[in-house]
Amino acid sequence: MENCIFCRIVRGEIPSRKVYEDDEVFAFHDINPLRPVHILVIPKRHISSLAEVGADDAPTLGHLLVVARRLAAENGSPDGFRLVINTGRIGQQEVQHLHAHIIGGSAPVGPML
Ligand code: 5GP
Ligand code: ZN
């Protein structure tokens, strides 16, 4: 996707603080962290939203979850964290490229983002 901000981050056209990258997923620090640990994990392939996924996306999404667990542990949330995928208008999804927020760290995590 030419103008998708997260596709542009994956391509290196927009700078980000990269945490991890492999063939399928890319992880980087959120530009506006809500907690000490706030990392976004995204599929490299453009998927606009969790509302758009199908069976073909299952391997990528499963891999994303396994990566998220490891990154949370390695980046300061060994005792637990929240994984949030905002979806669609009601879900207040602002960036239309599927992303999972890893939210945690030392401060308590409130009931809502
Ligand atoms: P959403 O509401 O769509 O689930 O959250 C989008 C997230 O992307 C927000 O937490 C926002 O701070 C983050 N974000 C938006 N633009 C950028 C950017 O250019 N770089 C980084 N690192 N994060 C971004
Ligand atoms: Zn995209």
UniProtKB/TrEMBL annotation:
Sequence ranges assigned to domain HIT in this UniProt record: 5-113
Residue intervals passing through the bilayer: none
Family annotation (Pfam families): HIT
Motif Histidine triad motif per UniProt: ranges: 97-101
InterPro entries linked: Histidine_triad_HIT (IPR001310), HIT-like (IPR011146), HIT-like_sf (IPR036265)
Top-rank taxon, per record: Bacteria
SUPFAM superfamilies assigned to the protein according to its UniProt record, in alphabetical order: HIT-like
Name assigned to this protein: Histidine triad nucleotide-binding protein
